[in-house]
Design goal:
Length: 222
């Protein structure tokens, strides 16, 4: 099954390091991020989970609840947590987010996360590195899919959350390599009334050979 942008994210149930999770109840009215991992006690995953834990205050500041998933048991996740916390020099015994257990790959199949190439030592498929960002309306806002061999960039994930939240609030789009505080773009479907209402600052139109005035930048007040 693949989940498309705008789909209501499946209301799955699973055990986790913080107890039983029913996804929609767990999410409540918040944004949420679900990031999956190929397996416990693996090197790249350990660095990713450590980085995610260190950035937890940044996700919280944006109102985004975090949840991880790996195809192993809660017991394995708890033992692995000690390694992750030692790796990031934390004396805290738990991570600031739950890790979902998926020992039978039930969720990996349901959420379309199995990596067709990477296998464990017994030849069983592993989970790819997926990122799902879900809005307060429980709908999928963004998905990323990386192979097991490539670790993700959590700074980029925070950047896309900033863009998703801004473009939900204002009828704008964020250009290539945009960072919070930089100018945004006005999409072609935003007409003069919406422009005056939402973007009182100057709008700069860059003229191009086509003569069509579609490339519009503006500053926004936050
Ligand atoms: C890792 O997390 O290091 C990893 C896991 C599975 C395959 C390759 C790398």
């Amino acid at each position: 099954m693949s989940i498309l942008l705008g789909d209501v994210f499946p209301n799955f149930e699973a055990e986790s390091t913080q107890g039983h999770v029913t996804f929609h109840d767990w999410l409540g009215d918040s944004w949420g991020i679900l990031f999956s991992h190929p397996a416990d006690f693996t090197p790249v995953c350990t660095t990713e989970l450590a980085r995610a834990a260190s950035l937890a205050p940044e996700f919280e500041r944006r109102g985004v609840k975090m949840i991880a998933l790996s195809i192993d048991s809660v017991q394995d996740h708890e033992a692995w947590t000690k390694d992750i916390q030692a790796y990031r020099d934390s004396s805290d015994g738990s991570l600031p987010y739950p890790i979902l257990a998926d020992p039978n790959r039930r969720l990996a199949v349901q959420l379309g996360m199995l990596d067709p190439i990477e296998r464990d030592r017994t030849g069983m498929p592993l989970t790819a590195r997926c990122v799902f960002i879900v809005g307060p309306d429980k709908k999928l806002k963004l998905s990323l899919l990386y192979p097991a061999s490539t670790g993700r960039n959590f700074d980029e994930i925070l950047r896309v959350i900033d863009s998703l939240q801004l473009t939900r609030r204002l009828p704008c789009a964020t250009p290539v390599d945009w960072k919070p505080g930089e100018r945004v773009m006005i999409p072609p479907n935003v007409g003069p009334d919406a422009l005056a209402k939402h973007f009182p600052n100057d709008v700069e139109v860059t003229m191009l050979p086509s003569g069509k005035p579609y490339l519009r930048h503006t500053e926004i007040k936050d």
